[in-house]
Amino acid sequence: MTEDEFQKIVVSWLDHALPFGCIYHHSPNEGKRHVAYKIRLKKLGMKSGWPDIEIFAPTKYFFKGIGKPLFIELKAPKRGKLSPAQQEIQKLLQDADCLVVTANKLTIIKSFLSGFIELKDNGNTRAFEQLAAMNGA
């Protein structure tokens, strides 16, 4: 399973697992691009190493009543490691009091998120969890 395939499962799971009012986003800063376009993106604020998914949830869903941004860096199951830029960005985010995880399995993401916010558990979430498990994610 590729990282893109894994991300599609994660995003579908998030659509059903996150409580009402939560929002997530993927910043498309990966991939090969023309040098001039990369320079333009950097001038516009793109950060190399930015996590794949950022989640914002209303404070009322946080168990401790203190809302914080949540970030997920995805890696393909059974492979992939953080680049130096990703390591640096994760440290900066953690220093800024954000919550960050690197995951190559949906169970890691579920465990991470459920440690901070209420998640929904339903037939849809379980179906995507089964799909991920069948594919080693």
Provide a short characterization of the protein structure.
By secondary structure, this protein is of the alpha+beta class. It has helices at residues 3-17, 35-43, 84-95, 106-114, 123-134, and strands at 23-25, 53-56, 70-74, 99-103.
The helix-strand sequence is HEHEEHEHH
CATH topology: Trna Endonuclease, Chain: A, domain 1
The low-confidence parts are: none
Biggest sheet, spatial arrangement of strands: 1-2-3-4
- The total tally of domains equals 1
Number of strand segments: 4
Tally of DSSP helical segments = 5
Kindly name the structural category.
alpha+beta
Under the CATH scheme, the architecture is 3-Layer(aba) Sandwich
Estimate what percentage of residues fall within beta strands. Answer: 5-15%
Query: What oligomeric assembly is this protein in?
Result: single chain
Main β-sheet description: 4 strands, mixed
Structure description:
- The chain is globular, with a radius of gyration of 15 Å.
- It has a single domain (3-134), classed as Trna Endonuclease, Chain: A, domain 1 (3-Layer(aba) Sandwich), CATH 3.40.1350.10.
- It has a 4-stranded mixed sheet with strand order 1-2-3-4, sandwiched between helices.
- Helices cover 42% and strands 12% of the residues.
- It has helices at residues 3-17, 35-43, 84-95, 106-114, 123-134; strands at residues 23-25, 53-56, 70-74, 99-103.
- The model has no long low-confidence stretch (mean pLDDT 93).
- The chain is α+β, with helices and mostly antiparallel strands and 137 residues long.
- It is built from 5 helices and 4 strands.
